[in-house]
Structure formats: C-alpha cells, structure tokens
Design goal:
GO terms for molecular function: monoatomic cation transmembrane transporter activity. By secondary structure, the chain is of the alpha/beta class. It is built from 14 helices and 12 strands. The strands form 3 sheets. A 6-stranded parallel sheet has the order 3-2-1-4-5-6, with helices on both faces. Strands 7-12-9-10 form a 4-stranded antiparallel sheet, covered by helices on one side. Strands 8-11 form a two-stranded antiparallel sheet.
C-alpha cells in the first residue's frame, strides 16, 4: 500500500536511521579503544557501554592522553545520538504512526483476502445507512472517505477503511477494486461521485456501480461515466412518501419484506452459473417451485428486459437473473439448485 510505504519510510528516517548511525559510532568506539589503548574486545565494548549510558564507572584500566581525548569526543557524539534516537522513538509512538502502520498492515491482509465485496465511497449519512444495511445482510465491504473523523469512528471497529481522496486510483486499488463485486459512490459531492465512478469503471470494467446524484442534471453524467444505477435520495424519498400516502398497506408490505431481517419471508436474486443444470430449462422443467418451495416472481433477461410474472413455460437462460420470494431456507435450496 502506498500509505504504508510512506509511514514505513517515515519510521526509517525518524528512528532506524539515527539508530543505525549510533550502532556505527559504537563500533567505531570499540575499534578506537582497542587501537589507542590496547583494550581487549570485551574491555573496549565495556567502555563503549559505560560511556554511552553515562553511568560513571571507572575505566577497566588506565587510559592514555589520546585515549581520554577520544573518549571525550566519543561520549559527546554518542550521547547526542542516544537522545535523538529516544526522542524520535517517543515522537513516532506518541504521534500514532506506529499504531497506524500495524493497523494498516492488518487491514491490508484482510482486504487482500476479500472477494466479491462492496466498496462504499463516502461515509456521510447515506454511507452510514448503506453500511448498516450491508452489516445486517452480512455483506463484506470497505469504506473510503475523505474525513479524518471517519478514522476516529471506525478505529475500534473491525471494518477495513481508508481515509483520503476517494477519487484516487491508488486508494481504490488498495480497497480491492479488482476483486470487488460492486461500488457505491455515496459522497455528498456530485463531482466526487462522477470522478469515483469514472475511475472505478476504468479499473474494473465488470464492476457493478451504484452512484448517488444530488442534482437531476448529474444523473446523465453519472451514467456516461459508467454507473449501472443512479439514485437520487431526494427523488427516492419523495417517491416513497407519495407511495406511503396513497398506498400505505402495500408500501408497508414491501418495506417489511425488504428491510426486516427476522421475517420468515424474504426476496433474493440468483444468476445461474455457466455449468448450471437449470440453463435452457423452463420453470416447470426446472422443478424450482416443487423442490425448493421458493416462487420466482421476475426474470431479468440478459438483454435487460424484465419478464414480469413468468409462467411455467418461461425459459431460464445463461445471463438471466431470477428474483424469487420465499423463506430463508427455501431461498438457500434455490441457491444450491441454481449454482
């Protein structure tokens, strides 16, 4: 990760580089004591430790004039280096960079192991709600946001996240866009959502992208940028309020099925694998209703056309998506049949 490399380079410059210089100076001191006053290796090493730690012990044996001069120069340089190393180490620990490096490495491993996850770009009110829904559905996701407060909020949670420019290609790659199933551009800024959508589509042409549009005129731009679906929160809210006002019972029924996790009835969608035995069979021939108990309510054809209220003679083709309703157990059976 680019961010990790920056942190590690900073760690090298702030801590390890002075430490390396201190070690070189210590070795030079050992060689100096052995050369000038004829100390043994052990005696010279002892003198270096005593000198650098400033404990004040007497020399192991008498020192010559040149030896004392060397010792004074050596202790001056060595003590300064020790103070620098300790100061840099404390600064790095207090600043939190060391903790961030460890967390980012752990997070990177988690992201690298993720497949078919979603990336949420923008963690405002809309992004929070999306994350909540994903959490309830046990869908893996990664968050990208440009606010530092996001880091403080998610630091203690086991959720991979990145704080920075969400339009950055590198940040999208760090979030595992190559292996992701989909991306939700939910930033407050329409401009950011357009750039995120454009970058995501280039990095992964097969990615399913849902983008938020704050203005009507932005919707077409998002579609041209590569968004598969464009959602306007204000338009959706108005539509839902109108439906609630005119058809409250029907709206409550659909909302309950879609958003309540403890019901015995749920809606799910399935796409047959290339080797599925269901391909080129009619619904009657597939035996879905009899074997699973789930009911197929819609078939989306590969062309994008929706076949509402499919009949027993409706054929299941390779690129079709089946929308079914049933209990969780029935839908699990259907998933095994379709796979």
């Amino acid at each position: 990760m680019k961010k990790n490399k920056i942190y590690e380079l900073r760690l090298w410059r702030q801590f390890f580089l002075p430490l390396l210089i201190l070690i070189v100076v210590a070795l030079f001191g050992v060689a100096g004591f052995m050369r000038i006053d004829g100390f043994s290796l052990l005696e010279a090493f002892y003198m270096v430790v005593v000198t650098l730690t400033t404990v004040g012990y007497r020399p192991v044996k008498g020192m010559s004039g040149p030896g004392m001069i060397f010792d004074m120069v050596f202790v001056s340089i060595g003590v300064i280096l020790i103070v620098v190393v300790i100061g840099r180490a404390m600064e790095f620990i207090v600043s939190g960079d060391f903790v961030r490096i460890r967390r980012n490495r752990r997070m990177t491993k988690k992201v690298e192991s993720m497949r078919n996850h979603f990336i949420i770009c923008g963690f405002g009110r809309v992004g929070h709600q999306i994350a909540s829904e994903f959490e309830a559905a046990r869908i893996n996701y990664v968050i990208i946001d440009n606010k530092q407060e996001t880091s403080a909020e998610l630091e203690m949670k086991d959720i991979p996240y990145f704080v920075g420019d969400m339009t950055s290609d590198q940040l999208l790659l760090d979030a595992g866009i190559k292996s992701a199933k989909g991306l939700v551009a939910a930033a407050d800024s329409d401009t950011d959502n357009v750039f995120v959508t454009l970058s995501a589509r280039v990095l992964n042409p097969k990615l399913f992208i849902i983008a938020r549009a704050g203005k009507v005129e932005t919707e077409e731009k998002l579609r041209k940028a590569g968004a598969d679906r464009v959602i306007s929160p204000y338009f959706m809210a108005g539509k839902q309020m109108a439906a609630l006002a005119t058809k409250p019972t029907a709206y409550d029924f659909v909302d309950t099925i879609m958003h309540h996790n403890h019901l015995q009835v749920a809606i799910a969608e399935f796409r047959p694998d290339p080797g599925s035995k269901m391909i080129n069979k009619t619904l009657k021939e597939s035996g879905i209703r009899q074997a699973s108990g789930a009911y197929v309510v819609t078939i989306k054809k590969g062309s994008g056309k929706l076949e509402m209220q499919p009949t027993a003679g409706s054929k299941i083709e390779l690129e079709d998506t089946l929308v079914a309703i049933g209990t969780p157990e029935q839908l699990k059976k259907l998933e095994k049949m379709i796979g």
